[in-house]
Known about the structure:
- This protein has helices spanning 36-39, 41-58, 74-86, 97-106, 147-163, 171-179, 184-192, 196-200, 203-211, 215-239, 258-268, and strands at 2-9, 14-19, 25-31, 60-68, 92-96, 111-116, 120-125, 131-135, 246-249.
- Helices cover 48% and strands 21% of the residues.
- It folds into 2 domains: 2-107, 2-Layer Sandwich (Nucleotidyltransferase, domain 5), CATH 3.30.420; 147-268, ATPase, nucleotide binding domain (Nucleotidyltransferase, domain 5, 2-Layer Sandwich).
- The strands form 2 sheets. A 5-stranded mixed sheet has the order 3-2-1-4-5. A 4-stranded mixed sheet has the order 8-7-6-9, with helices on both faces.
- Helix 2 runs parallel beside helix 3, helix 5 (147-163) packs across helix 9 and helix 10 crosses helix 11.
- The chain has 269 residues and is an alpha/beta fold.
Amino acid sequence: MRFTAGIDGGGTKTTVECRDAQGAVLCRKTFGAFNLNSIGEDAFRGLLAEITGFFSGLGGCGALCIGAAGVSNSRVRELTAEAVGQAGIRRWRLAGDHETALYGALAGGPGCALIAGTGSICCGRNAAGGFARAGGWGHLIDDGGSGYALGRDALAAVARQWDGRREETLLAELIPAQLGTGSPQELTAYAYGGGKSRIAALAPLVQQAAEAGDPAARRIVAENAGELCGLVRAVMKRLGFERCETALLGGLLAHDTLRRRTLVGRLAE
């Protein structure tokens, strides 16, 4: 049986879906993390072998699209090409997960997708097929408006209050309470003791404080909304859009919160 397959490769899990020639779903299966930068080459080879073995058990994969994070790493393409070649898959494409998100959100039509989760990125496509992106540089360079940026700014607000450089903030109560820390040394150990996800995990506390009217938290929300708007503005300019449909995607934008409402208001402006 011939089928077409799509792979959504994430940092924690990989979802594979197969469809027949009429577009009907044949099956869906979940595998482990796809990001080579996180799991290493041996584990990545093993994952690809597991997926292509799954395809072989179903029949023949006539076409494959992979949307994943971390595809800018040239080794991802090299190892993927090797695996799909050995599996006899001739028609395949590797794309960033922001590209597949854009296509899925707008059903292939023109417009933009703004994605804000642990990181942030905006991409778009115009009616002529032109593609542009802004952001996606990672937390060490950019990622304004992301969960990481919100968490980082929250920690900075607490540190500055403790120094006497800024006004008091509710975040100085919420963050130590959640982390079980009460001293500058413990807060520093938390901030520098792990990856970016532990910083991004503090983003909901910014929302909580902002909803309670905390000035520092509201300033963080407003500034980061401005960063996200800048991403959309840059993509629209490069694609020649005066107006366009913009999909709001990712964990930070999935729910009706002050953060999302602030962003929508800024986008409307």
